[in-house]
Amino acid sequence: MIEGTDAIVLMGPTATGKTSLAIRIAQALDGEIVSVDSALVYREMDIGTAKPEASEMAGIPHHLISVRDPGDPYSAADFKADADRLIPEIRKRGRVPILAGGSMLYLKAFEEGLSCLPETSLEVRSQVNELIEEKGLPHVRDWLREFDPESWERLAANDVQRIGRACEVYLMTGKSLTELIRSQPRTGCSWRLRRFALLPDPERKLLRPIIRKRFEKMLADGFEAEVRKLFERGDLTPDLPALRSVGYRQMWQYLSGEISYEEMMERAVIATCQLAKRQMTWIRGWKQPYTALEMGAAVNLEIILQELREPVTAEKG
Fold it and tell me: CB within 10 Å: which end of the chain, N or C, has fewer?
């Protein structure tokens, strides 16, 4: 165990090498890895999520990977509950919990807690989805601006999931998402965390070709067949959180005949690059102290181990 530390957090944009670095940290510290990834939680979604294989895990216990069916949504609240359960279990075994991934909303929920927002009824969700389909996301976003300008400003223009959720909350309660969040107390994080972030070059010039090459490899490894199997189940829809994941959303559109194969490839790469940009923006605004690491640097493990030997200091990120 590490004095003064309950768990290590390793975050970073997609395709920056978090998985391999987390495994190296776990090997050095006798740790177990808790996945902070909104796509890895789902079964039958292996290739498109770059899910590590058993051989890659190098005998290190991994948690929250392949624990849900794609038709059974997993939320940030679910993650917080699972992480709060897993950390003491791992520590009780005398091992170090390592939270690693790129789902910033999950980490935010874990660190800051969640407000108790109403569950959306199927009727309201269908109403919002139909509105997006008929009028388009820009129209719905303009509507959001009328009753919740702060959410309108905060949410990315193409974030259909969160824009839709903000509209659902308003239809369910008559109050904006911003108003409800402000009016309710949050239960924050009581764990002592040491935080690290893997970052590419500021312009992401090195990351873009890696993302494209990785997606091309996914296609060569059978990604289309993987999504087609989900597509042919008949009980899944593209509105499910699992299938809104980058790559899966675009492949689903291709299988539905909405776009060509070439469009699918280009859109998937662009969407992944946009995701990486949002992740970097979030990390740079991370309210908690963290140590920034250069993507691909050979000394990253050494830096982490050295940092963990030192007492907690003021913010470094």
Answer: N
- Token pair, residue 83, equals 């992480």
Task: Round to whole Å and give the CA distance between 138 and 82.
Answer: 35
Say whether pLDDT at 315 is over 50.
no
Element (DSSP H or E) covering residue 11: strand 7-11
Rounded alpha-carbon distances, angstroms, from residue 304 to 60, 87, 184, 296: 18, 20, 37, 14
**Burial of residue 112 (number of CB atoms within 10 Å: 0-12, 13-18, 19+):** middle
Give me the residue spans of the domains in the chain: 7-114+186-309, 122-183
Note the Cα 316 to chain centre separation in Å.
23
pLDDT at 84: 95
Give the integer Cα–Cα distance in Å for 74 and 94.
Answer: 29
The CATH class for the domain spanning 7-114+186-309 reads alpha beta
Spatial distance between the Cα atoms of 36 and 107, rounded to a whole number of angstroms: 7
The H or E element that residue 78 is part of is helix 76-92
- What dotted CATH number matches 122-183? 1.10.20.140
| Integer Cα distance of 300 and 226 in angstroms | 34
- Cβ-contact 100, 267 below 8 angstroms: no
Question: Rounded mean pLDDT of 213-242?
Answer: 96
- What would the DSSP string read from start to end of 270-301? HHHHHHHHHHHHHHHT-SS--EEEETT-TTHH
